[in-house]
Every structure is written in structure tokens, then in C-alpha cells.
Here is the input.
Amino acid sequence: MNKKIRNMIIALAAIILVTTGVVQTIPQMTLKAEAIEPYAKGELAPVNSEIAIKQGEMLVAASDGKQLFVNTDDLSIRVVDEASGKEWSSQIKDAANNKEKSIVNITYIGKDDKKVEWDAYSNIIEQGNYEIAQIEDGARITMHFQNGTKTIEQLVPSYITKEHYEERFISPIEQKEKQGQLTSKQVATYKSVLNSVYVKDSGKGGLKIKSGNTLPPSGIKQLNELVEVIGYTEDMVRADNEAAGLDIEMPQMASFKIVMNLTLDEGDLLVNIPTYECVSGNDFFTLQKIEVLPNFGYASSDVVKDGYIFVPDGSGALFELNSYNASYPQYSRPLYNNTYFDQMYTRDTFSENVSMPVFGIMYGKDENATHGMMGIIESGEELSSVNVQLGTDDSSTGGGINNKVYSAVDTSQYSRVKLQGPYAEESTRYLTSTGPIEMDYTVRYKFFNEATTYYDFAEAYKTYLSEKHGMELTYKNEPKLYLEVLGALTLPKHFVGVPYDEVVSMTTYNELGQIIEDLSDMNLVVDYQGAFNNGEKTGIMNKVELVKENGSKKELEALMQVANDKGAELLLGTNLMTIKDASFPFKAKVHAINGYDGKPAEIYKYNLIDGKFSPSKVDRKYLLHPQYFKDVMDNFLGATETISNISVADVPNTYYANYNVKDIVTPIQANAVIERELQRLDESKEIVAFNNPNANTLPYCDYAVNISRESSPYGTMYTAVPFRQLVMNGLVEYTTLNVNMSKERMEYYLLQALEVGSYPKFTISYQKEDILKDTPYTHYFTVGYENLKPRIEELYSEYENAFNQIGTTEIVNHRLVTDGVFETEYANGVKVLTNYNEDAVTVEGHSLSPVGFKIIK
Here is the structure.
């Protein structure tokens, strides 16, 4: 081979290698990843004084007419309203079991994959393994859970050199004394107990545990405190024994320290558990869940004969007190769908999500109503659940007499992953976990000392959100119609048998302009979806471009002018963190969220035929890793400077985290990024619409779209209530679900407009829907504008006529009249009765047609 040819081959090979390297590197360069910040730990309030245990009930705080008592014997708590004498307690008389005597219950998991539950009464209260301290406005309770009493050999090494003894024990406690973390008295006590444990080993020259040594319980407790204070763990005991050549078998013993702060804040009870202060004494075990005040505010069927428990399932739901049914398990739902990545290949049996971190109980109903209590999960709701236990006055049913509603928090998340995939017949699994998650889990309890309804809860939560986020209450005095318009879709096509994708605009800018002019006598909000980056089939947002199939830039400007002239609000819609187009430069291993198996989480639609979330490249999608969201938002805001109104379909209602053990991003960390970036979007745009937002993203939008009026059809639920809409009323504007594409009749959505101020919503396209046959978009089966126009005009006409009689959207009361019938009172005194039943009813002297309404002036 001549030299020239050889050199050309070498050069070509070098070019191929360089090109390959550049192509492989491009995905990493596509988006800039930010370093996800660790959770910013708070500082514990200083201790004012210690409170001795086993001294009966003590008043620990008073604020705004409320008193907080802690019982030092059993850690039960009681809040009293001084004016009315009403009280809320966690101390159950004649408790049926130890759980009913517990301030918390915990669950932990060992590396052997065994899950264990402990109640506080059995594991700390009976033994006196807790401390109480007075802090500003309340008390701190420190609980020491452990399975049995540790022996000396499990706390300290059986032999240790003098040098190591100084290094391991004496130096750390003296250092903490210098730092002011220990008093001289504590240091003296700890040194004394060490002297009681060790004696000089005359043979080896070091120190050994005294032969036959036993310490009194107080000494064991002091030794426990010592090793906890200096962070000396069982793993260190094993390591030091091994270093001394000792092979001592030590059983795995679980122990946990739980810290709980109880304070009064303007008459509210604040319960705070800083999980970064909750320590496991043995790395073999991980604390997984804490049930927080599971008995607080309970209602006994012996005393409270009727009333409701409220949960934020869907729009909101009520359970009747004393309605226990053995056929249904205890209600427990995760907030924000926070078990999604563990259950992503299992179909949820609940039809609605839980999107507001609240719960409550109403003692008595109607004329028997006396008072109430509501919990607001202020912090850590991303890992929380709402739980209901119903009581009964019929012991033959097998239920207890007490009704309870409370929250629980996952202090770590875990999954048992199938080795061969989620649908593999081979059932071998392995346990994977996030490890401990740092947060300040905080629940605020609000107390109502008079007759209370779900409307009172909604008003209280609305006020809370308004004050917390500076959201001004505003109410509209005109009807509006919300139109979601299909823009660009990606349709599968074939050419001589070869498949390919084609981007098709279902409604171009010019066509949308015609629709707006055609409906110009209506107050329209027009949400034009599929506007950016491939339309509905969004790819990675490394750059942001309008979809050319929808029209030119000049045609978009003309559309904006038409909307402005006709008084319509026009928004351009997109996904920001959902990847449906996985083509280059997107790379799942680089950009996607990882599931518990450490691989990019692939999300599929549920297949009714095989009962699985079936793998299909057609409907596969990924979620973008939160570390890229800042760069995505930078790109998006930069490219849309001239576009004032934006609609976001995915981020506000999606649960984000990353579960690759090499790159754990907790839901707490992920949500901090999500909320920060959505706030930037809100501050940069005039109007922002979010699809079905969770409560934590609600403050950053002007429109909340697709808000259901239903709750999940759980067997023991009594009725759905529009709690969510009542909270939103005045904070944001909000819509119904789609009037078309629904099994419900049109009147059902008209009722919602008149009952709670929701704007009726249609999804439409200029093109007929028949072109979507045999595509992934067959669910758009009734969207053609020409066919829908008569229904749109009919609904709007009825809605406008009724609204003109009402005159405002400001709601001042809402109540359940009877099954399926509700009454809304507006600020101007107008009342509206709505009947959701399929039969005519007569209530309080008023006749209502099936799915009908009556306006009362």
C-alpha cells in the first residue's frame, strides 16, 4: 500500500473517530445541568428549660385564645379554646389498643427487606424513653424508639486502646463542651458512666469492659445518650472490635430518635418534625414512615353522633362519621400522586388525584354541628398521605368506636423492583431506596369553635394561600368560555409501506382567527395547544421554535390582532418537561428521570386489552430530569419574549424526583426547582394557564384548567364537594373538564358554571376529527368545530342568561342541601340551587328538574 493511500485511510479513520465522539457528546451539551441544592435545614428553636416526665398534664403554650397542653405521662396533647371551652384532644378514653395511645406510629425497613411497624406507646412511653423541653410558644418532644434495651457490648467496644478511647469518646465530648453543645455537668456524667464501664486490661494495656459489668437502667440510658451525642454507631462498635481482633456476634437492633416540635402560632397548632434530626441508631435499618398525631381530634361514636370527615380527593369528598364498613380498607391516599414511580406499572384504583394538602373533621352536622378542625400540610406534602379511620356505634361490625383523620409522611421512599421487569412471571425482587430524606414536615391545625362546614375549611385555606403567597382576591362579573384548540399533532403515515411521521396542523393561525371572529359575541379564552417544538409531540427544549405547519410569524401576529380586537384572551400552549419525541439530540440516559430500577423511566398508556402499560414506541414518553429545568426555562423565556400569554400542560401536575442511587434527587429538592422556575414564568408573562395544577403550583398561574367536580368513587365516601373550586374562587380563574369528549350531558357542566363559577371548556379543532382515525389521537373523537358550534352556542347562551341573573363569581357560602343538591350563595345575595341527580327533586319548597338549577333572588 503506498504511503499516500495509507495516510488517507488514517486521516479518514481519525475523522470518523472524532465525529463519533462529537455526536456522542452532543446530548450532554444539549442542555446545561444545574447542581441540585441540598435541602436547607432549619435551626431548632433553643430550649428554655427541661420538663420532667411522668408529672401529669402541663400547659406549654397559650396564643390567641388557645391553650396547648402536653401530658407528660403519655404524651397526649390537648388544645382548648378559652372562650368557648371547646377542646381537641389525642387522649382516647378506654383506648382499644396501644396505637390509640400513641402520639406517633413509625414504620422502618431493614436491609433484609423486612418492614416493621412500631407504636409510640409500646416502644417509648411505657419505658419512659422520651424527653420534653420547653421552647418558645410550645414544647419539643424527643422520642427514642428501640426494640429492647441495648447491652453495654452493643453500645461500646469490648476492648479499646487508651489512645483510641480518647479519640472516640473523651475528645468528642470535650469538644462539644467547648462548642456549648454540652454542659460541664453532662460531660462529667458521661465520663463517669464510661469509668463505670471500662477497666484497665493489664495484659494488653488498653481498656476492657469490666467483667460481669451491669449498669442500672439510668446508666444504660446515659450511655445511650453519650453514643448518640458523639455519633458513635453500632457499625463503629463492630469496626473497633475487629480492630482489636475480637469476633463478637451482635444482633441487629433497630433504634430511632424522633424529634417533634409542638407550638401555637396565632391560635393554630403547628406540628413540626425535622427529619434531619430523626436519626437511626443502626444503618441496617431505615426509617420509612411516620404517622403524625393519628388520634388528635378524634370523634367517638359514643359522644359525636353525626358529622363528616373531609379529604381532598378530586374536588373534595366527605365521609360520614360512624360509617365504618368492613368491606372497605382504611382510606389512605398519597398527595400529588407521590407513589407514582413505585406504582407506575399498576393501574390506580382511584379515579381522581389528591392535589391539595388538607384534611378535616366536622363534629355534628346541620343543627347538631358544634365545632371542627382542619389540618394544612405546610411543608413536606410531596411525601405525605391523608388517612381516614371511620368509627361505628355497632360493635358487631368489627370496627372501633373512633373516627380519625390524620397525615403520615414518608421519611424515605422505596420500591421492591422486579429483577426481570414489571410484568415478568419470575418474581425475584430487590429493595431499592432513596435513603433518609431531609425536610421539615409541618402540619398546621386550625380550630373552629362553632358549627363548621367544608365551606369554612375552603375559606380558611383560601385565606391561608392568599396570605402566604401574596395572592390578591379578585372576582369576575362576566361569563367566559374556555376553548382548548388543537394545533400541531404528529400523525403516523406510510409511503410505499415505509412508516414516517408527519406534523399536521389541526387548526392553523388563520383558521383559529376565523373561529374567534365567528364566536366574537362570546367572552373567550383561547388556549392554542401544540404551538411549539413539534406541537403535541414535544421534544427536548434545547431550543424553542414555533411550529411552521401552524402558519407563519406574520399569520401569528395577525391572529393575535384578531384576538385583541375581539376581546379574546389568546394563550399559546406547550409541554415543558415531557419528552414524547425521543429523537436526537435527546438521550434518555442523559436527560430523563430514572425510576427505582436506575434506568430512564419510560411512561406508557394503559392497554385495556392486556391490562398492562404496554411498551409501544408510539405512545412512549419520558420526563425531563429536574436538573435541566432552569436551562429549559431560560430557553423558553428567551424565545417567547414577544408572547405574553402561555399555557403549560405538564409540569404543574406532574410528580418529579430521580431514583438512580448514584443521583438521588428527592421530591423535596425537585419541587423546589419546579416552583422556582414556574414563579419565573409567572413573573415574565401577563397570563399563565396551568393544566390541573397541584396546590404548590397554583400560586403561579392565572387559570387552572380541567378541574374536576368529582371525587373517587370510594365505597365509604358519602359525597363529592367542590372544595377545590371554592378554594380557587377569587385566587385564580378555573374551568370545567371538557364539555365535549365526555360521557356527561352538557347540562352537567352548566351546573358547575353556576354552582362554583367554573368556566365551561371545549376542546376543538378546525379540521374534522376523521383524519385522526387509527392514530394515537383517537380520544379526540368529537372535536370538529363545525359540528360542535351549535352545542357551544347553546351552552354559552344558557350560561350567559343565567350568569346575568347572578352577576358575580364571588361565593360567600356553599352547602349540601340533600343528596346531589347544593346551594351556592353569592356576595350580592343571589342564591343558586343545583341538582346533580338524574331525577327531579323538591327541596325547601323549590322544584328542580333533573340536572337542573334554580336562581333565587
About this structure: Residues 70-146+253-296 form one domain. The mean pLDDT is 95. The two ends are 101 Å apart (CA to CA). Residues 150 and 481 are 68 Å apart (CA to CA).
